[in-house]
Amino acid sequence: MKIFTSWISVIIRKSSTWGYLFQRHISSCVYPRVYWTKVDCIGLQNNHFKINNLDSKLSFVKVVGHRICPFTTMTGSSDILSIDKDSKHNSKTDMRSTQTNLRYCIPGTGTYRNNHNASLVLTDGLEGILGKTAPTHDDASDLGRGADLRKRSAVMTSGQTVGGRRHWTSRSFAVDINMTSTIKSTVLGLVLVMCFSNVGLAAAAQTVAATNTTTTLPPPCDSNIYCYGELLKTVQLARLHEDSKYFVDMTLKFSPARVQENFGKLMEDTSDDPTRKQVAQFVDDNFDEPGTEFEPWTPEDWQENPAFLSNISDPIYRAWAEDLHEIWKDLGRKISIAVKEEPDRFSQLYVDNPVVVPGGRFRECYYWDSYWTIDGLLLSGMTTTVKGMLENFIKMVEEYGMVPNGGRVYYTRRSQPPYMIPMIKLYVDHTQDMQFISDNIGHMERELNFWIKNRTTEVTYKGKTYEVAQYNVQVDEPRPESYREDYKVAQSVPENDRTQLYVEYKSGAESGWDYSSRWFVDEANANQGSLKDLAVTSIAPVDLNSLLCYNAKIISDYYWELGDSKKAKRYEAVHEDKKKTLTELFWDERDGVWYDINITNMRKRRFFYLSNIHPLWSGSYNKSNGEEVMAKVINYLKKQKVLDYIGGVPTSTQNTGQQWDFPNAWAPLQHLVVMALRENRDLHEEADAISLQLAEKWIQSNWQGYEDVKAMFEKYNVEIIGAPGGGGEYDVQVGFGWTNGVALRFLNDFGDRLKSPEQEQERAAEATTTGGSLSLHASKLSSANYLIPVVAAAANFLAR
Ligand SMILES: OC[C@H]1O[C@H](O[C@H]2O[C@H](CO)[C@@H](O)[C@H](O)[C@H]2O)[C@H](O)[C@@H](O)[C@@H]1O
């Protein structure tokens, strides 16, 4: 065995600015070949290295991370090796470590092809391998051959088209290689240890400012029809459909290559300037309407007369609950086997088990919506459907490393609020199916760790450092499903700012609150502005941090049940750490509530958003102060006067025209406030009464809307009983998964005390003699303007 010395320096460049220069000299590492590379994780999400054409039998790859390097395992096949994020090999990985130099020495397992050029690509790991790469610079050509190389360098240019394929890198970079000798033999495990001990890494300590420079980021997915490219742009800007989402939900009639070829012809024939009619014809010729991706399906576990109906004493509400229970059948979808067989022709992702969708334009399953949908399905006794949906999510974690925003390919590079673990808890609480936990606890950990590794950043406050989670999607291009809308706003900002705007758009979509003044940051650090002021990545949202805290607690509890005390303690520590952060950073003693934090100046965003009370719901506060916390939160809600609206609690007090603002009220947020108060009712004398009152308002409004148009809305207006919400970038939708789920939950939990308006009227008539008043009784809106578009939407829904 020979000893060789290799010397590689990797220069990571951030667009026009050289971010830093790193050079590493390895004095004596006793194994065949080591590739050293330095990764700075500050400002990067989901770093991922892919090494093509590496001499993998004879090589190790060493990744030296500045802070949190979210990858550790190396997998390989043929001439492509990639480093995956989840380590089985590297127990030294501590995702929360703030150590300057994390060292990973990873054996490769692929085969060596020394007639190929090698290339090293830094990509966004979460998204997996972002297109194949090929050498882009002659100087890289010797990398991997084990030849004597001196001061070779190669600069990969992001987004280049190589060999007919486009590839993306998170950063441009250069590789300098200087190997003084090579060897032929292979030594693995032992050498690994020697590697770690032999390498001095002090010089690697690099501090890199997390500058916000323009970088080349990947598109929403790799499909040049559904996610980026001229075809998508041409069709979307032609405005063939009122809703941008329609086009990206259509199915290709032919293979993507053939459709691209046809598009090429169209452009050629029209000198790159087709008329709207010609584009429409092209779409007609090459795409089928949305819907061919599904097969007819009725949930097998749907039964008449589910048990929960008997908990509802008001006969009018009970009859309505039966209707709601029926609606599950309309919202069920089974993905056609054609999607499995020819995935490239569909934007729909294939999953084995049927799903329950929100409804309307939301034809596919959504991540966080499913929490409330599943809660309702469980009340409806549909445990098989629920288990299937959970298995789909687990599969997605396996495939994408996380759960995508929704079941379409254009959603796969962003997620939504992480409710998979709480959903599993709902299911297990209901069924006692601990086998599901022992089968899937690893995937639950993986989901939580995705957020910890890829959506967590370090902040300093009053001399202490904290880890806070954020929505942060480092993906370029307009959202395909809202292409026109995003593109238009982007034209109003300088070209250099557009990528960042697209990042903010997607990060907002990941938050589930798309969009809201919650994400506007103006010059005065307030929440005024418009969509071009989106600054989601500058904010640490309290609900996300609270949710992750809860996730860690659930996992810890399950590990105790499974008898793995080591893991149980580990996640208990994560939970405690997050709880402490919520208390020390997010809690505001003066106002008695938690706030989002602007991490660019570490100031609290002292604005009312219903998400502010999330830690009360998730139990992420010090239980020893429970009564005090509860009293303060109730006081805060009263002071904000948000308990006074007739139709529920508003999302915010800002009327911006955005859908996650006033006057809209959303089912998941009503659930949040009502259940936070109900579950903690022992902590405060008023908690039970307020939760009942809020549940009553919400149910009355939902019921009234249903009476008017025989449909459930996606969101409601807090000022008018029964009226749908509005604003945002698409018309209000009917269906509706989470609304039905929350209505069933309230009808079940408060069913013995809720009275429909008709019943109330009777009660009122009786009460007049005693001077009773009906604060919640609303006059019915028979001729309200809102009914016109809504009736049309409802008619469409019913006609399905
Ligand atoms: O098409 C625009 C956006 O639509 C979705 O967001 C809204 O509907 C979802 C499904 O009910 C819901 O989860 C989300 O909270 C709503 O704001 C979609 O999730 C977005 O990614 C999409 O851009």
How would you characterize this protein structure?
- With about 800 residues, the chain is of the alpha+beta class.
- Among the domains are: about 70 residues, no CATH class; about 130 residues, no CATH class.
- About 35% of the residues lie in helices and about 15% in strands.
- The chain contains 22 helices and 27 strands.
- A hairpin with a 2-residue loop joins strand 19 and strand 20.
- Bound molecules: the ligand OC[C@H]1O[C@H](O[C@H]2O[C@H](CO)[C@@H](O)[C@H](O)[C@H]2O)[C@H](O)[C@@H](O)[C@@H]1O.
- Ligand LLGJG24Q binds next to loops.
- The ligand OC[C@H]1O[C@H](O[C@H]2O[C@H](CO)[C@@H](O)[C@H](O)[C@H]2O)[C@H](O)[C@@H](O)[C@@H]1O binds next to loops.
- Belongs to the glycosyl hydrolase 37 family.
- InterPro entries: 6-hairpin_glycosidase_sf, 6hp_glycosidase-like_sf, Glyco_hydro_37, Glyco_hydro_37_CS.
- It catalyses: alpha,alpha-trehalose + H2O = alpha-D-glucose + beta-D-glucose.
List keywords for this structure.
6hp_glycosidase-like_sf, globular, binds the ligand OC[C@H]1O[C@H](O[C@H]2O[C@H](CO)[C@@H](O)[C@H](O)[C@H]2O)[C@H](O)[C@@H](O)[C@@H]1O, alpha,alpha-trehalase activity, alpha+beta, EC 3.2.1.28, Glyco_hydro_37, four-stranded antiparallel β-sheet, single chain, disordered N terminus
Task: Estimate the mean pLDDT confidence.
Answer: 76
Can you count the helices? 22
- For the biggest β-sheet, the strand order reads 2-1-13-10
What kind of sheet is the major sheet? 4 strands, antiparallel
- Rg calc: 28 Å
Q: What is the 3D shape? A: globular
Give the termini separation.
Answer: 72 Å
**What small molecules accompany the polymer chains?**
the ligand OC[C@H]1O[C@H](O[C@H]2O[C@H](CO)[C@@H](O)[C@H](O)[C@H]2O)[C@H](O)[C@@H](O)[C@@H]1O
